[in-house]
Design a protein that fits this description.
Blueprint (H helix, E strand, L loop, with lengths): L1 E3 L2 E3 L9 E11 L6 E5 L3 E10 L3 E11 L7 E7 L5 E7 L1 E3 L5 E2 L8 E2 L3 E5 L4 E2 L1 E5 L10 E2 L2 E2 H15 L5 H16 L6 H17 L10 H13 L7 H21 L6 E4 L3 E7 L2 E5 L2 E5 L5 E8 L19 E7 L7 E5 L8 E9 L4 E3 L3 E4 L10 E5 L4 E8 L4 H33 L3 H26 L8 H34 L7 H29 L5 E2 L4 E2 L10 H28 L6 H22 L4 H8 L7 H13 L1 H11 L2 H11 L1 H19 L5 H8 L4
Parallel strand pairs: 2-9
Antiparallel strand pairs: 1-3, 3-6, 4-7, 5-6, 7-8, 10-11, 12-14, 13-16, 14-15, 17-18, 18-21, 19-20, 20-23, 21-22, 22-28, 23-27, 24-25, 24-28, 26-27, 29-30
Helix pairs in contact: 1-2, 1-3, 2-4, 3-4, 3-5, 6-7, 6-13, 6-14, 6-15, 7-8, 7-9, 7-14, 8-9, 8-10, 10-11, 11-14, 11-17, 12-13, 15-16
């Protein structure tokens, strides 16, 4: 049906009584049938009639008028009823521009149209279909959508539909259809949505028709020319959902035609966007630089490499997955038994934050899936420039790249909760240190311990706050992302530097018992290590990256960059931290060795139990303040992300380090008797006296056992 005018202009409130004349036409196929035609319409009918039209059609017309003031209905409907009582209905709506409503002004052949309205126009002479255009928000015209195709394309569609029914379905007819389609797709007239969509429809129609007739290999040349031409053409002018549907239909049609066309022996055909190779038996071929291996005797395999299609297909396989190339493979065989296929793609992942996936196209879901496919280690290529895929079925294959897939929701929740608890714990620790400082810091040794502990707490607090602020990089500007990356880099390095100071102080105390460290020397050296070194490392790494035009931080993560082995700003963090952790582990080993050495060789079982308990206390109390849990992060770098132990290590790393502030508070403050005593004294004077007597008796018992003194020293870091 067609309505003229398509839009009724009722925007002039002073002329609402002026009648609007509407002409409606309905076209139906001319036959021996006689029709009873009825119309439903708003307003009053003026006239109606019918006349023959071109190409064996009948056109029925109707004219009516209505008033803008009484415009309640906007639909015109026609009903055709034949002699058997069968009916066919069609309707059309007229768009109405009311007063004060926004609209798009007249533009070329597009009439004045209300906001949100879509108008239909006829195609140019010689083309079939229609054009439509929508008036967008604020009265701005959107892009014209055209389904107009040439008369030649229409003839090819009709011939393909006839071929599908089996009428005239011969080898010659198929070759003629593809030859005509090749000529059509080679011209610029088909370089639009309508032409491409019609061509894809023809390929699918022929794929359905080829199920019932044997097509020989002579069809391949023109068919592959058509398929290649379509990928050369421009697929713009439509939204992504239409592009996804077109590309899926293209892949489905090409795959089925390749499978159905019969080839007697081997065959090689190369086109600009497709590379077909047909082989028999054990297959080891190269298609568009992808090596394909199949081991099955007496079976014919057809392999097609396809360029310029990957970016047109839907991809919701992984939230962050992308195609590192624009290449996919179509592999088919005669027979239905399962087959393992090996494909060597010339693709490498850029860094360890990315993961490669071997995938196939699921025609039911119209999306990629990795069911039955896996990435294998390639012993033939050690340069990391290849990806080896193995699948246990045949269809269309590709390689996708994504960020390493981890259960981000769970990890994010743990991280948020852990950081919140850690920050609160560190604030409490600093408040407690301020309250008890004058009481517990009486000797140089206690001064050293509490100074390092306070610095560790301060820098861990600042680092946790910076980390929490950068957990949603997508909401941060590049400027703030850089600032937070610098802060995290600096504060975490400073924290580890003060952990190193505490570790070295412990070793010095154990080895040089009669040569205690002086306060001035300790503060001078600790200031250099704890303040100077982190600033120097961060400054040098940032300046180096900037002046060598390298990325210092990743905008997607607001963290340092990993660009390869010993390449990237991340190593300005990993190497210093690794050195500190190794040193601290050595210090813990020295403490444990000292405890074992101090125990009597012929001691009783109770003495051995006391020594064992002392070692456990050392491990518990020193692990948080020595940053030993961060060593799990290095294990994560060693283990492959597909390893079964990787999730356990990842969760362990997240939990232990998110709650590190809590552990530092518990082991660094509440584990020290003097701090507990002072806190209890402040809270309850009476309870403090009772606790003091109990603690004194306990300490007297401990001092009688000389072999346990090193445990007390290591555990409480020489608190006095």
């Amino acid at each position: 049906m067609k309505i003229d005018p398509p839009v009724a202009d009722c925007s002039d409130s002073s002329n609402l009584e002026v009648p609007v004349i509407v002409n409606v036409t309905a076209t139906i196929q001319n036959s021996n049938e006689s029709y009873n035609v009825s119309w439903q319409f708003p307003g009053a009918g003026l006239s109606k009639g019918s006349k023959p039209a071109s190409e064996g059609t009948l056109v029925f017309s109707f004219k009516s008028e209505f008033s803008c003031r009484k415009m309640n209905e906007t639909k015109w409907e026609v009903s055709f009823k034949n002699q058997k009582g069968q009916t066919k209905n069609e309707s059309v709506d007229i768009l109405v521009i009311s007063a004060s409503e926004k609209f798009c002004a007249v533009h070329d052949k597009w009439p004045k149209t209300p906001e949100g309205g879509t108008v239909i126009n006829q195609c140019e002479n010689g083309k079939t279909g229609y054009k439509s255009r929508t008036c967008g928000k604020d009265g701005e015209w959107q892009t014209v959508f055209s389904s107009c195709i040439s008369a030649e394309m229409t003839k090819v569609i009709d011939a393909a539909e006839l071929f599908k029914t089996g009428i005239g379905a011969t080898q010659e007819a198929a070759m003629e259809i593809f030859e005509s389609l090749k000529n059509t797709t080679s011209s610029k007239s088909s370089d639009d949505y309508a032409g491409i969509n019609a061509s894809i429809s023809i390929i699918n129609i022929m794929a359905s028709g080829s199920e019932n007739i044997t097509l020989k290999e002579e069809v391949f040349d023109d068919f592959l020319n058509v398929a290649s031409n379509l990928l050369t053409n421009n697929w713009t002018g439509v939204n992504s959902s239409i592009t996804y549907d077109m590309s899926s239909q293209y892949l489905y049609g090409v795959e089925n035609l390749v499978k159905n066309i019969q080839v007697n022996d081997t065959l090689n055909i190369y086109k600009p966007n497709l590379d077909l190779k047909v082989s028999k038996g054990d297959c080891n071929i190269s298609v568009l630089n992808v090596t394909v291996k199949l081991n099955e005797t007496g079976v014919q395999f057809k392999t097609v490499g396809v360029r310029n299609l990957m970016d047109k297909l839907n991809n919701s396989f992984k939230p962050t997955s992308t195609a590192p190339h624009n290449l996919l493979l179509i592999v088919t065989k005669n027979g239905s038994s399962s087959t393992e296929i090996t494909m060597d793609f010339p693709i490498k992942k850029l860094n360890d934050t990315q993961k490669l996936h071997c995938v196939f196209w699921d025609t039911n879901k119209k999306d990629w899936s990795d069911t039955g496919c896996r990435v294998e280690r390639d012993s033939n290529h050690t340069d990391g420039n290849h990806t080896l895929c193995k699948c246990n079925h045949l269809t269309s294959f590709a390689v996708l790249m994504s960020k390493s897939d981890t259960p981000n929701l769970d990890l994010d929740t743990i991280t948020y909760v852990g950081l919140a608890v850690s920050i609160c714990s560190l604030v409490i620790l600093l408040i407690i240190e301020a309250l008890v400082w004058s009481v517990v810091v009486k000797t140089d040794l206690s001064y050293f311990r509490h100074t390092t502990l306070v610095n560790i707490a301060v820098f861990l607090l600042l680092a946790d706050c910076s980390f929490l602020a950068s957990m949603s990089p997508e909401n941060l500007s590049a400027h703030w992302c850089l600032i937070l990356t610098l802060c995290k880099h600096l504060f975490y390095l400073a924290m580890f530097s003060w952990m190193l100071c505490m570790s070295v102080m412990l070793i010095h105390r154990l080895i040089f018992v009669f040569n205690p460290l002086r306060k001035r020397v300790f503060m001078f050296l600790s200031s250099i290590v704890g303040y100077g070194c982190p600033v120097l490392i961060v400054g040098i790494s940032y300046v180096y990256c900037r002046y060598n035009e390298k990325e210092y931080y990743n905008k997607a993560t607001c963290w340092l960059v990993f660009a390869g082995t010993l390449d990237g700003s991340l190593f300005a963090f990993l190497l210093p931290v690794g050195t500190v952790i190794f040193t601290n582990l050595f210090s813990m080993a020295v403490v444990i060795f000292t405890l074992l050495k101090s125990s009597a060789p012929d001691g009783s079982k109770s003495d051995e139990r006391e020594t064992f308990k002392s070692i456990i206390r050392v491990l518990i109390f020193l692990t948080p303040v020595f940053g030993v849990t961060w060593g799990i992060g290095f294990l994560l770098q060693i283990f492959n992300k597909d390893h079964e132990a990787y999730p356990f290590l990842l969760y362990s790393f997240t939990i232990l380090n998110s709650f590190q502030g809590l552990f530092v508070m518990l082991t660094g403050v509440f584990a020290e008797p003097k701090v507990r005593q002072e806190l209890l004294k402040r809270m309850d004077k009476g309870k403090y006296d009772t606790m003091k007597n109990s603690t004194s008796a306990s300490n007297t018992t401990v001092k009688m056992k000389a072999k346990v003194v090193p445990s007390e020293t290591a555990t409480h870091m020489y608190s006095t």
